């Protein structure tokens, strides 16, 4: 029901040297800016976006080293023009962009939650959002910087204050939760991850992540004693990476892949392709009285959010997960909104 076509599309796997091996040429030229392009997520994300032939103009911005990343990536033999921008050139980087992806921010370290990142990353996202609202207010904003449950509302408040907010153009990238759910369930079911589709709703941290395992055709493979462990692994999968990297960072490569998947889907939808659905964190009517932003399968279109479908019937276990999600998610959202009010 919620098949994610993007997961079936190989971004660059097993590609020969010739640029002819990549996807068909873009229907309409698209300019994409990556803010935080020299970071742990930004570099592999920039590489993957350079491979996407729906991207014709790739702008890479960071406070340092972005020009070097751009020079490196620009040697890849795909058509996208790639330019690096230094700290003082932020507005120039944003001028005329169609999509702005923000992986900028500090990564998690062992023992840290996404909320521990809040104070530092809130300031970063606010300042980048101010520049985008001023220079490129109609761009589609894709927020990766954690904690997404709070940083997306921060961007919304900045755009509201600037008088340019369009909820159809603001997305929290939660695709990594979906790819993790797909991967972890496929390990149990012995299925192809590309054919193991699990919608993940709610938010993007801990108990706010609600995998709807009942919607996967492989759901019967999960025994009752495995269910809680699988859900916990999906909700806290990022901790595996933080621990394994032993203080050297958090999920960067998988996050870059997930962001590239979502960006690819959005670009196809902006170019008029029909039937594209992705789970993403947006302003939503689904649980508006409890959480004004909510991740769910969203139909994408030429203007961004095309439709927010009703959710399927939950199992008793999923209902409990949702009930645990909503109070925390509401607090996260309110935290972002309050912070902007106190730190304009």
From TrEMBL:
<feature type="binding site">
    <location>
        <begin position="144"/>
        <end position="146"/>
    </location>
    <ligand>
        <name>NAD(+)</name>
    </ligand>
</feature>
<dbReference type="InterPro" id="IPR015955">
    <property type="entry name" value="Lactate_DH/Glyco_Ohase_4_C"/>
</dbReference>
<dbReference type="Pfam" id="PF02866">
    <property type="entry name" value="Ldh_1_C"/>
</dbReference>
<dbReference type="Pfam" id="PF00056">
    <property type="entry name" value="Ldh_1_N"/>
</dbReference>
<feature type="binding site">
    <location>
        <position position="108"/>
    </location>
    <ligand>
        <name>substrate</name>
    </ligand>
</feature>
<feature type="binding site">
    <location>
        <position position="114"/>
    </location>
    <ligand>
        <name>substrate</name>
    </ligand>
</feature>
<feature type="domain" description="Lactate/malate dehydrogenase C-terminal">
    <location>
        <begin position="174"/>
        <end position="338"/>
    </location>
</feature>
<dbReference type="InterPro" id="IPR010097">
    <property type="entry name" value="Malate_DH_type1"/>
</dbReference>
<feature type="binding site">
    <location>
        <position position="180"/>
    </location>
    <ligand>
        <name>substrate</name>
    </ligand>
</feature>
<feature type="binding site">
    <location>
        <position position="146"/>
    </location>
    <ligand>
        <name>substrate</name>
    </ligand>
</feature>
<keyword id="KW-0816">Tricarboxylic acid cycle</keyword>
<dbReference type="GO" id="GO:0006099">
    <property type="term" value="P:tricarboxylic acid cycle"/>
</dbReference>
<feature type="binding site">
    <location>
        <position position="255"/>
    </location>
    <ligand>
        <name>NAD(+)</name>
    </ligand>
</feature>
<feature type="binding site">
    <location>
        <position position="121"/>
    </location>
    <ligand>
        <name>NAD(+)</name>
    </ligand>
</feature>
<feature type="domain" description="Lactate/malate dehydrogenase N-terminal">
    <location>
        <begin position="32"/>
        <end position="172"/>
    </location>
</feature>
<keyword id="KW-0560">Oxidoreductase</keyword>
<comment type="similarity">
    <text>Belongs to the LDH/MDH superfamily. MDH type 1 family.</text>
</comment>
<dbReference type="InterPro" id="IPR022383">
    <property type="entry name" value="Lactate/malate_DH_C"/>
</dbReference>
<dbReference type="InterPro" id="IPR001252">
    <property type="entry name" value="Malate_DH_AS"/>
</dbReference>
<dbReference type="GO" id="GO:0030060">
    <property type="term" value="F:L-malate dehydrogenase (NAD+) activity"/>
</dbReference>
<keyword id="KW-0520">NAD</keyword>
<dbReference type="InterPro" id="IPR036291">
    <property type="entry name" value="NAD(P)-bd_dom_sf"/>
</dbReference>
<dbReference type="InterPro" id="IPR001557">
    <property type="entry name" value="L-lactate/malate_DH"/>
</dbReference>
<dbReference type="InterPro" id="IPR001236">
    <property type="entry name" value="Lactate/malate_DH_N"/>
</dbReference>
<protein>
    <recommendedName>
        <fullName>Malate dehydrogenase</fullName>
        <ecNumber>1.1.1.37</ecNumber>
    </recommendedName>
</protein>
<feature type="binding site">
    <location>
        <begin position="36"/>
        <end position="42"/>
    </location>
    <ligand>
        <name>NAD(+)</name>
    </ligand>
</feature>
<feature type="binding site">
    <location>
        <position position="62"/>
    </location>
    <ligand>
        <name>NAD(+)</name>
    </ligand>
</feature>
<comment type="subunit">
    <text>Homodimer.</text>
</comment>
<dbReference type="GO" id="GO:0006108">
    <property type="term" value="P:malate metabolic process"/>
</dbReference>
<feature type="active site" description="Proton acceptor">
    <location>
        <position position="204"/>
    </location>
</feature>
<dbReference type="GO" id="GO:0005739">
    <property type="term" value="C:mitochondrion"/>
</dbReference>
């Amino acid at each position: 029901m919620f098949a994610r076509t993007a997961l079936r599309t190989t971004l660059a796997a097993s590609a020969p040297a010739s640029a002819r091996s990549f996807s068909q040429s873009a229907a309409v030229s698209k300019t994409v800016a990556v803010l935080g392009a020299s970071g742990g997520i930004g570099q592999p994300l920039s590489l993957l976006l350079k491979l996407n032939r729906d991207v014709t103009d790739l702008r890479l911005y960071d406070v340092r080293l972005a020009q070097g990343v751009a020079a490196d990536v620009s040697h890849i033999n795909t058509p996208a023009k790639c330019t690096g921008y230094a700290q003082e050139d932020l507005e120039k980087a944003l001028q005329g962009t169609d999509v702005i992806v923000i992986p900028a921010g500090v990564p998690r370290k062992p023992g840290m939650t996404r909320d521990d990142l809040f104070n530092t990353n809130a300031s970063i996202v606010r300042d980048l959002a101010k520049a985008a609202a001023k220079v490129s207010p109609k761009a589609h904003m894709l927020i990766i910087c954690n904690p997404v449950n709070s940083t997306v509302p921060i961007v919304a408040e900045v755009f509201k204050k600037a008088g340019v907010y369009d909820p159809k153009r603001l997305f929290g990238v939660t695709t990594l939760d979906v790819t993790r759910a797909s991967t972890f369930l496929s390990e149990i079911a012995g299925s192809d991850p590309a054919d193991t589709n699990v919608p993940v709703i709610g938010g993007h941290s801990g108990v706010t992540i609600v995998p709807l395992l009942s919607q996967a055709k492989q759901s019967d493979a999960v025994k009752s004693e495995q269910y809680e462990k699988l859900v916990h692994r999906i909700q806290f999968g990022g901790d595996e990476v933080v621990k394994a990297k032993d203080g050297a960072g958090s999920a960067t490569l998988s996050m870059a892949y997930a962001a590239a998947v979502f960006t690819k889907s959005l670009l196809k939808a902006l170019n008029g392709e029909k039937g594209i659905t992705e789970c993403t964190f947006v302003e939503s009517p689904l649980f508006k009285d409890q959480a004004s932003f909510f991740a769910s399968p969203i139909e994408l279109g030429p203007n961004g959010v095309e439709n927010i479908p009703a959710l399927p019937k939950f199992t008793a276990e999923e209902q409990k997960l949702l009930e645990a999600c909503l109070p925390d998610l509401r607090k996260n959202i309110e935290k972002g909104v309050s912070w902007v009010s106190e730190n304009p």
